[in-house]
Amino acid sequence: MMDFINARVVSVLVLLTLVSTSRLGVPAEAEQVLGTLSVEDPTTHLHAIDVTVGSVFKVEVWARGVPKPGIVDLHFRIVWDPDLIVFVSHDIHDHGFGVLSGVVRSDSYELEVASPFPHSPFFEDVSWTTLTFRCLGEGSSEIEVAYSHAYYGDYDDDHEFSFSPENATVNQKPPQSATSAGDVEQTIGMLWLALATIGIVCAAILAVATRNHGRNHSH
């Protein structure tokens, strides 16, 4: 009898072990990816932005393709290379949402906005912030969406999702070369030579005209 009980206990333990092992083997459900979060030129809406060293430029962060009935919370982080571009300022477009946080670091900007209670979801394609930078050096660098998270419909785990990122590439060109002092002197010299030539030609024309006029009067 004791052997039968021990056998049943062993069987139960084995079964529990198999069940727990099978659960560990199931991958966690991946977070939904819905819509896009785009870093782009405010005017052209392109992802390639050409700037010169020392100039100031802007980018906008757009959310597009938000699932209906719309988002009630939006949280994202934008990163860049602080050796090539430096943050100047930002302008938040909250669209009636409350700003929960807006954190600026040397190489990143993080924003979270949420619909006030009672929640009024938002699903239009709009810009949520405008970032202003100054170009520090030549080269090519990315302004990237490093993190995104949102809720649609309500604060429910089943309505949690992230955006597909669309990053911007900043092509940083050298500034236009200033005209050197030697070039200025050369230009002025050529201008004086041209004026002198014009003066000589005009004087010759006047002399011929005066001589012809005198001959006509002598006759």
Structural features, described:
It is a single chain. By secondary structure, the chain is of the alpha+beta class. The chain has 2 domains: 32-173, Immunoglobulin-like (Sandwich); 181-219. Helix content is 28%, strand content 42%. It has helices at 2-25, 181-218; strands at residues 32-40, 48-52, 56-64, 71-79, 85-92, 98-104, 108-114, 126-135, 139-152, 160-166, 168-173. Strands 1, 2, 3, 4, 5, 6, 7, 8, 9, 10 and 11 form an 11-stranded mixed β-sheet that branches. A hairpin with a 3-residue loop joins strand 6 (98-104) and strand 7. The longest helix is centred in the C-terminal third of the chain and has 38 residues, at 181-218. The protein is elongated. The chain starts with a helix and ends with a helix. The model is unreliable at 4-29 (pLDDT under 50).
Short note summarizing the structure:
By secondary structure, this protein is of the alpha+beta class. It has helices at 2-25, 181-218; strands spanning 32-40, 48-52, 56-64, 71-79, 85-92, 98-104, 108-114, 126-135, 139-152, 160-166, 168-173. It folds into two domains: 32-173, Immunoglobulin-like (Sandwich); 181-219.
Key features?
28% helix, 2 domains, 219 residues, alpha+beta, eleven-stranded mixed β-sheet, Immunoglobulin-like
Low-confidence stretches: 4-29
- Rg over C-alpha atoms, rounded to the nearest angstrom: 36 Å
Shape: elongated
Largest sheet: 11 strands, mixed
**Count of alpha and pi helical runs:** 2
CATH class of the largest domain: Mainly Beta
CATH architecture of the largest domain: Sandwich
Q: What percent strand?
A: 35-45%
What letter string, H or E per element, gives the SSE order? Answer: HEEEEEEEEEEEH
